[in-house]
């Protein structure tokens, strides 16, 4: 069962309560749903991570918001933070294009002309091209912002129900296997 595999890598509730870095935040990070693996906390953690993954910014910004959402909604924190990694340098462009297309469709604006992106990443360091990229993304305006919110919400809701559905299927499959084992013991 995947839960058993993940469980051995997650910290125990006692070790979390004794951790001095976590104690800095008081009891906010001591809620059992933040660290335990059950269908409510995991599906909520996936939803929080999927939503936070489309928040503009680098991974630390997305990690912060995933953590914030996990604490507010009391869902699995490590899962929420890990799931934000779906938006990475390889997937961010298609995700933002999909968000812009969705936002353009909802707002009724035209998607014919995207502003040209003139970034020479080899000649600039990270501190120089982040403001350029931010200005470029801001030029998309309203369709991109609305599209990001809609796409993030759509991904979060879809991810939530997919995880719950797969969890349910796994439980049903486990019940049936257990019933078959019992039946075979009785028939022997």
How does this structure look, described?
This protein starts with a helix and ends with a helix. With 188 residues, it is mainly alpha-helical. It contains nine helices and no strands. It has one domain. It has helices at residues 2-7, 13-18, 20-23, 39-52, 59-73, 77-83, 92-107, 126-138, 142-187. The mean pLDDT is 81.
What is the strand and helix layout of this fold?
Layout: H1 2-7, H2 13-18, H3 20-23, H4 39-52, H5 59-73, H6 77-83, H7 92-107, H8 126-138, H9 142-187
Helix pairs in contact: 4-5, 4-6, 4-9, 5-6, 7-9
Which descriptors would you attach to this protein?
68% helix
Low-confidence stretches: none
- Helix/strand structural class: mainly alpha
Mean pLDDT: 81
Q: Helix coverage percent of residues?
A: 55-70%
Radius of gyration: 21 Å
Relative strand content: under 5%
Organism: Nitrosomonas halophila
Pfam families: DUF2062
Domain DUF2062: 24-176
InterPro entries: DUF2062
Task: Please summarize what this structure is.
The protein is mainly α and 188 residues long.
């Amino acid at each position: 069962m995947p839960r058993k595999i993940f469980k051995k890598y997650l910290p125990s509730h006692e070790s979390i309560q004794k951790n001095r870095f976590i104690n800095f935040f008081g009891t906010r990070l001591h809620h059992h749903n933040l660290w335990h693996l059950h269908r409510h906390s995991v599906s909520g953690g996936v939803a929080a991570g999927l939503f936070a993954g489309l928040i503009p910014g680098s991974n630390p910004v997305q990690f912060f918001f995933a953590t914030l959402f996990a604490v507010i909604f009391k869902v699995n924190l490590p899962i929420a933070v890990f799931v934000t990694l779906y938006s990475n340098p390889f997937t961010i462009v298609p995700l933002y294009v999909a968000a812009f297309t969705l936002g353009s469709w909802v707002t009724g604006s035209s998607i014919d002309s995207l502003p040209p992106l003139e970034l020479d990443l080899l000649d600039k360091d990270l501190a120089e091209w982040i403001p350029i990229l931010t200005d470029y993304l801001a030029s998309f305006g309203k369709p991109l912002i609305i599209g990001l919110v809609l796409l993030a919400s759509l991904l979060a809701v879809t991810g939530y129900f997919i995880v719950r559905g797969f969890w349910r299927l796994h439980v049903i499959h486990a019940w049936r296997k257990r019933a078959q084992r019992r039946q075979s013991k009785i028939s022997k």
